[in-house]
Amino acid sequence: MDKLIIIDGNSIANRAFYALPLLSNSSGLHTNAVYGFTTMLLKLIEEEKPTHFLVAFDAGKITFRHKEYTEYKGGRAKTPSELSEQFPLIKELLKAFKIPQFELTGYEADDIIGTLTKAADEKGEKVLLVSGDKDMLQLASEHVTVAITRKGISEVDLYNPAEIKEKYGLTPAQIIDLKGLMGDTSDNIPGIPGVGEKTALKMLHEFGTVEEVLANAASLKGKMKEKVEEHAQSAMMSKELATIFREVPMETEWDVFRYDGFDGQALSSMFRKLEFKSLLEKMDFGPSVVEEGQAVESLEAVVVTENNMEELIGKIGDNAAIHVEAIGENPHQAVMVGVVWFTFDGETNTSYFVPIALLKSEAGEPLRTWLSDDTKKKQLFDQHRAQLVLAWQGVQLRGVDFDALLAAYLLDPTESNLSLSGLTGKYGLPGVKTDEEVFGKGAKFRMPELEALSDHLGRKAMAIARIVPVLREELEKSEMHSLFYELELPLAGVLAEMELRGIALDAEGLKAFGVELASKLDAIMTRIYNLAGVEFNINSPKQLGEILFEKLGLPAWKKTKTGYSTDAEVLERLAPHHEVVGEILNYRSLAKLQSTYVEGLLKEVRPETGKVHTYYRQTIAATGRLSSQFPNLQNIPIRLEEGRKIRKVFVPSEPGWYMLAADYSQIELRVLAHISQDDNLKEAFLQNMDIHTKTAMDVFGVEESAVDANMRRQAKAVNFGIVYGISDYGLSQNLDITRRDAAQFIEQYFAVFQGVRKYMDEIVKDARRDGYVTTLLQRRRYLPEITASNFNLRSFAERTAMNTPIQGTAADIIKLAMVQMADRLKQDGLKSRMLLQVHDELVFEVPEEELETMRRVVPEVMAGALKLDVPLSADVDFGLTWYDAK
DNA sequence: GGTTTCACG
DNA sequence: ACGTACGTGAAACCC
């Protein structure tokens, strides 16, 4: 069976351009739209296996539509040059793919596509039409499936007439009427002002077409009636403009579009020119780096032996780039391979590789001493990981004065490829192979021969030596020098110490809790099967959806991309309809505790010590927060009592000691008060008021005594919204109120917290002007999408601009407190140990005799970590377990 | 490997 | 008009 794929070229190029960050190759050519286009083509070829293929483009500027309506597509921002310069590249790319392209003066791509799909319908040929434009839905038919890109370009929603009916309640032809009524700002099609999708759909469900809606205008009510009557002509014209012309005089001979595969050679050279490294590798087009006549930089990669160790370590000097290689994601369990250092004597690049066995042997002593000598300065890529790996081998690492990973993260915390090979590419330095290239991955993992290994690791150390001065200068330029040297670099060491110490778990207690859960789960499961009348896998959202919405016929109102949604929000609304739903909710919460917190945590306990050692990631979160892995100890349950009990198994590691926890009170709103300088908010904290009650008083305009629990709850939600970068929609969802009411709340809030409104406006403007926002300590986050024309992307960036300085400054502050606290414990010779950080909370284990001291010192250090214009405050408590330290 | 759900701040 | 609250990690399904 033949299958023709038609791509709406301009539409897909646009979507790709706005969906992807503005990539460019080393000669400054922008390539993001070409890249997106390419990945889409490859995916379609692989998944759809078309026998025929074509891409249609708009030709020129003036089409017949302009003759009828001169404003057509007026007011549309003109295509940015970064995109228009990519069209010739896309056309060249299509030649390499050997995919026919069509454009016709005076017609849009839509019309070409309309004509071809009509021909396909008549012939009964199968067509997949790919576009980013929902207008295309009007072309769907028995033979024509329309794929509309969703969120970026890698995913599409497929529509045939049945699905359009299901989603909109319309036939494909009525899509034209829909646009006639609601118009389309991006094409400057007016429609009827004030009529959006909701209203338009309602009218079409009742009357069917624009003509019928106009004919029945008299039966409409109030304002709507006026509007429809007043803009009747506009609606008719809009419908006409939205109608795709399907009679373009053109060749529709099928064989012209036959697709028989791409020209590998042309494609490979195209990818090289565009520097699509990942695609070159994926397509097996050979090495991604083109060596321009110049040989790979020479490196003398020496393997150190027990005989020459003494002599070679003498050459290392007081300063070197070093690298610690270990295999495995979790540094507490990774298998160490060895250490390598790099030197340059003015002539020769040399690296020295010390395999793990040698490092640990007697002969390894000089290197071990050098590594732990604070006066020997080291530059690394990922000190934190190296320190952990070495520590588990009994080797201390001291004297790190630069960390390339940490620096690259600060320079761009959203960079997704923070690998050494990724960064050398990004900063235009001689590249290194990726670990995947050298080691392979998954089942294909192989340790290379000693020589190749030593060369690869040596090149890593060389790359570190090369990239360090570049990153140092960049940090200076972006004023993150102090943030790096005074906060992040010392923190790396503090984190490593906390993690190595670990936290003790009462494994027996946890197992007992698991047994209890198992019997409860068993009972619930039986009840669910009885109530549902059938046994099924409750953990499978697919099976659960079928039971609830098909077998039991409960109302489904929310969908996921694969089927019915069965999340807690849905189930809570269904609970009154059927007894089984409450049981399922209960089952879900207990099953989560069992699998993630009982079984998951037990898997991470070291049997020798009874401890878990989390790994805090310092270079993941875009806001500057830490994250925690293997296990994640930042999401241990607390909100529900049943889950909170998990905290009872987190215990001190020494008899007679206590757990002590201290958390910041309202740190984000205090930070907001400081950076916005809002008088009212500042005053509230200076007076040490309950901030949610205060907000309720101001928003509802009542006395403190008149604030009831519900008002406080709503005010609390507003405060959360403010911190997240408020929108009326978000607040309405959270409070389950109408958008109008949510908007009213927000307006009320801003009326009394005018400084906050001013901050929100200014920070978005600043982000547009600078392209980034910063925290109090100059941590930076770039927001390229702040200028996007796509509403969703832009709005997201705007909320991020509001939220990141708040969340990020709070992260700065607790990090400061951690570094200061670690110093303080050492200075004062305290035995207490810092164990955990949970964003606004620090957890310690404390010997009894230090309890009084720590209860005083911890909140004092936390509150004093950074001086703001409002006081910071931390609450502290202690007990025999983490549960009791509340 | 992607998707869904849910735990935390 | 558009349609999401900000930041994470882990487990279970299912292809």
UniProtKB/TrEMBL annotation:
Enzyme Commission number, as recorded: 2.7.7.7
Keyword DNA repair among UniProt keywords: yes
Molecular function via GO: DNA-directed DNA polymerase activity
Subunit structure: Single-chain monomer with multiple functions.
Protein name according to UniProt: DNA polymerase I
Swiss-Prot/TrEMBL keywords: DNA damage, DNA repair, DNA replication, DNA-binding, DNA-directed DNA polymerase, Exonuclease, Hydrolase, Nuclease, Nucleotidyltransferase, Transferase
Ranges where the 3'-5' exonuclease domain occurs: 287-476
Catalytic activity of the protein: DNA(n) + a 2'-deoxyribonucleoside 5'-triphosphate = DNA(n+1) + diphosphate
Family per record: Belongs to the DNA polymerase type-A family.
InterPro entries for this protein: 3'-5'_exonuclease_dom, 5-3_exonucl_a-hlix_arch_N, 5-3_exonuclease, 5-3_exonuclease_C_sf, DNA-dir_DNA_pol_A_CS, DNA-dir_DNA_pol_A_palm_dom, DNA/RNA_pol_sf, DNA_polI_exonuclease
DNA-directed DNA polymerase family A palm domain sequence ranges: 643-850
Domain 5'-3' exonuclease: 2-260
Gene: polA
A Pfam family matched in the record: DNA_pol_A
